[in-house]
Amino acid sequence: MTARGPHALFLLFVLSVVFSVQFPLPLVASQYASVNLSDLVLLAIAVLFVLERLRADDWRLSLSLPSPTAWFLVAGGWMVVSLAAAVVRSPDVAAVNALWTLKWFEVTVLFVLAQAFADRVDWNALLVVLSGAGVVVAVTTVVRTVSTSGFTRVTVFWHNPNTLAVFLALPALLCLAHGAGRIRERPLEALVAALGGLCCLLAVVSTGSRSGLITLVAGVAVTVVLSYRRLSVSLLVGGVGTGIAAGGVLLTTRPKLLGRFLPTIAFRDGTIVFSGPGTGAIYSRYELTRKALGLWTDRPVFGYGWFASPENPTVSFLDVFYTQVLVDLGLVGFVLVGAFYLVLVRAFVVQRTTTSLAVPTAGAAWLVGLLAAGIGGGHPRIPRIMFLLVLVLVAANRLRICGTAPSGRPGRPSRGRSFRND
After folding, report:
1. 250 and 277 part of one domain
2. The domain containing residue 278 runs over which residues?
3. pLDDT computed for residue 410 by the predictor
4. Where, by residue number, does the polypeptide cross the bilayer (predicted)?
5. Model confidence over 391-409: pLDDT tens digits?
């Protein structure tokens, strides 16, 4: 394969994640188990890596992000321990737990391969493709929302409206952060980016997803805190406000869906009472949390195995990220996975430089937004979300290196300037 082979495969991988094609596994007792097109593309990337190493007879591997990689392996190691304990206690669900544990290591493999091929991928182009694909999904989402009625919520290529919404928060934050950083030097480019971000914002609201809205609001807050001196806060906050307001106006034609965002809060007999269409989730999450704590006390150390929620019928749906991890992996796993995500946040934050600001800021903001939305779903651990998360992290790291490396240093800079603020 040519020198541009890794670049083409990584672009194809991004598209295969955004526009997912799934092939169910009929022999596995799980409605979620499947082989995705992205799995096949990742396999091609891995085969290319092995062939090139065999040809060169050189297996040395340089990792530009060693700390997150190590934490991937540490958390994954405990998942294997938890799986072993689950096999002893519940062998009937062990196969499904094993598949989800392998999925974690698949994300780890992608992370390692992305670092290995980092100097042969045009990360600017990859981010543009990711953002452009996000805008296409956003436009499709808005069009399909307008054509539906009642409580119907569109999913487009993501099979779940909440997962769709939290994904769309990523291109929204990328576009808005880029536009807010370029508004003075390149106003036309900033305007185009802001319009793309507005499309994604409008789509997030049109899904009726509270998780998506939490991801956006928390993400914008983090973006402002991290870069308020170097980004146009007025464009950033104004753009988000405009997008959310426009989405609200769009949903006035869908009052039942709009009601999901508008719970009624009242005081009765000295207590707070929630009512309205948006309150069911509040009470259900409370009950699910109580259930999860009861399950955890039964297996406090090793848990029930990774993704026991929702796969294990004893555990079923818990729908809160933090209690899912606690029940799945026990207290030790909860601490390790929590530390892993904190390391990822830090890894994004330290990539910020004058020459590379928008991408690490948007990446950190998206991850914190996902963690905030974890009160209503397990979004941070969904493999498709994690695939994009690690690619954005490697892109941020590579753009920082290219932006600060002196002339003549090994490794060519990425072509184009789409996501650099120099």
Report:
1. no
2. 260-285
3. 37
4. 30-51, 94-113, 125-143, 163-181, 188-205, 211-228, 235-253, 321-345, 357-376, 382-399
5. 999 999 999 988 743 333 3
